[in-house]
Amino acid sequence: MLHFKVSDREQISAVGSFLTLVLALAAGMVVIGFIFLLCGVNPLFAFKKIFSGSFGSIYGFKETITKSIPLILIGGGLALVFKAKFWNIGAESQLLMGAIFGTWVGLNWGPALPAPLIVPLMFLAGFIGGALWGLIPAILKLRFAINEVISTLMLNYICAEFLTLLIVGPWKSPKKFGFPYTDDLPASAILSLIPGSRIHVPTLLLAVVAVVVLTIVIYKTRFGYEVRVIGENPDAAKYAGIDFSRTTMLIMVLSGGMAGLAGVGEVAGIHHYLSYPDSISSGYGFTAIIVAWLAKLNPIYTIFSGIFFAGILVGGDAIQISLGLPAATVDIFNGTLLIFLITGDFFTKNKVRVLFGGKGLIHG
Hints:
Blueprint: E1 2-8, H1 14-38, H2 43-55, H3 58-83, H4 91-109, H5 115-144, H6 148-168, H7 201-220, H8 222-232, H9 234-239, H10 244-271, H11 277-280, H12 284-294, H13 302-323, H14 328-349, E2 350-356, E3 359-363
Antiparallel strand pairs: 1-2, 2-3
């Protein structure tokens, strides 16, 4: 009779960890290839279309960078909370709440203030909005022991409906011919773009600086040490006198706030008004979960993983047009890769032995 024995892996080299990551990605790609085959599409042709659509032209690459901005911001924040084993699945709603707060500031204060003042205020408001929304599941867990996966996930739906209520109700613009949009942001509240693209420069710079600073915080400060200890060994953290409640609330303020910054960037940099949730975000809050895992929970690596998954989003649009595949194809692609990345991470940290009749057969 077969039995499986799982034990902690004492140590794995950087090379071994990297090879595990590569194998996990390769295995995920193979499974995705089979899915393409089941859809009647040549997998090699589909992969070529995806990556040529996102990296094979100047236009595609510019669109890839545009979509990578929110993924880098949100992925960096998620890398922080995941380090502490706090499973924030609510970055999508934290992005939307940041968009709501930032839009309110832009619409109400923008006409009276110049760009050097209103733009920082919008980003500050967006950070506060995302942070406050992120604090809710942290408090629910600390005060009532409510699982954060459930609370953060449910808050996504609440925030989406709240945003919809605003744009069809009190914030609906009388100038939009009946469409459920707010008024356009004033010119002073609109972010500058790289000419010939939709890349909003202030948010891109903010994203890069934020993940660099966050990486330094995680690996070079006492607070970062406390975050890592809580994630690796909660009992040891309590024994060392680490304030679990304070640290949990702080990491959710930072994670939610970074998602809120992304929300401001999407509204002020691309749309210029508030509209339906799925127009503001292309599922960035969920895709950023995979971005954080591919980055091995290191914020600075989310720059590269964010660009990679942004390329999949852009390439996914290309295969919908050229191959006639449904929009859900991108979700299947991303979900499959996440499963294999988590599996690879499991084997990085654990050894698995297959036992037959009490004797070991296979080591993994």
